[in-house]
């Protein structure tokens, strides 16, 4: 039984990460500027449990460092986590609870979604809405989901048809405390 449970962590990717000579100290991310990129396959779900462990450990370590190492319980250097294509990513355990308490510790998460229904499919409607409500930033790239279009239309003060007919070169950026912005997507092809 132990072998079956640990088998997830004995993959090439997990072993490479674990044996890497330059290990990541998540607490250090709140002490000095560090950029950490996780390249995650949107097709290979075999690493989900390992990835859940990384996310959970990062959030736990950062929160513990804020609570233990700083008298005001706020990290010295704010940590920004950008979760691109969040709905095709792994489901982070208790993410609805985590995202509700991290901002006070200078830990911020931006999720990038294409469909609210995908988020609801991962976390359920209630938890999905809690996640959205606790995001300082939300980037909407467009799509054909009517429920998402209605939600974005209300936030952007536009009609649902306008959102559904939005050119593929455009996006909407929502930042807490600011008016919604219709922005052009960055062309990054070489």
Task: Provide the descriptors you would attach to this structure in a database record.
alpha/beta, globular, single chain, 5-stranded mixed sheet
Written description of the protein model:
- The structure is a single chain.
- The protein has helices at 2-6, 12-19, 48-69, 95-101, 116-123, 125-133, 146-156, 160-164; strands at 79-83, 107-113, 137-140, 170-175, 181-184.
- The protein contains 8 helices and 5 strands, in the order αααβαβααβααββ.
- With 190 residues, it is α/β, with parallel strands linked by helices.
- Helices cover 39% and strands 14% of the residues.
- Strands 1-2-3-4-5 form a 5-stranded mixed β-sheet, covered by helices on one side.
Structural class: alpha/beta
Radius of gyration: 18 Å
For the termini, the CA-CA separation is: 49 Å
What fraction of the residues are assigned to beta strands by DSSP? 5-15%
Strand order of the largest sheet: 1-2-3-4-5
C-alpha geometry = globular
Q: Characterize the largest beta sheet: strand count, sense, and whether it forms a barrel.
A: 5 strands, mixed
* Overall mean confidence score, pLDDT: 85
Query: What's the helical proportion of residues?
Result: 25-40%
Number of helices: 8
Number of strands: 5
Q: What is the helix/strand order? A: HHHEHEHHEHHEE
Multimer state: single chain
What ranges have pLDDT less than 50 throughout 5 or more consecutive residues? none
């Amino acid at each position: 039984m132990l072998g079956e449970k640990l088998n997830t962590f004995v993959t090439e990717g997990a072993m490479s990460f674990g044996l890497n000579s330059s290990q990541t100290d998540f607490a250090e991310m709140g002490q000095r500027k560090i950029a950490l990129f996780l390249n995650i396959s949107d097709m290979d779900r075999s690493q989900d449990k390992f990835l859940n462990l990384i996310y959970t450990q990062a959030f736990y370590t950062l929160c513990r460092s804020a609570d233990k190492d700083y008298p005001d319980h706020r990290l010295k250097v704010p940590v920004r986590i950008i979760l691109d294509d969040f709905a095709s990513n792994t489901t982070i355990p208790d993410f609805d609870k985590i995202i509700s308490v991290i901002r006070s510790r200078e830990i911020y998460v931006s999720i990038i979604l294409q469909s609210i229904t995908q988020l609801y499919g991962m976390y359920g409607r209630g938890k999905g809405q809690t996640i959205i409500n606790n995001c300082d930033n939300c980037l909407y790239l467009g799509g054909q989901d009517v429920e998402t279009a209605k939600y974005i239309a209300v936030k952007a003060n536009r009609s649902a048809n306008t959102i559904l007919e939005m050119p593929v070169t455009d996006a909407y950026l929502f930042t807490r405390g600011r008016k919604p912005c219709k922005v052009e997507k960055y062309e990054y092809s070489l």
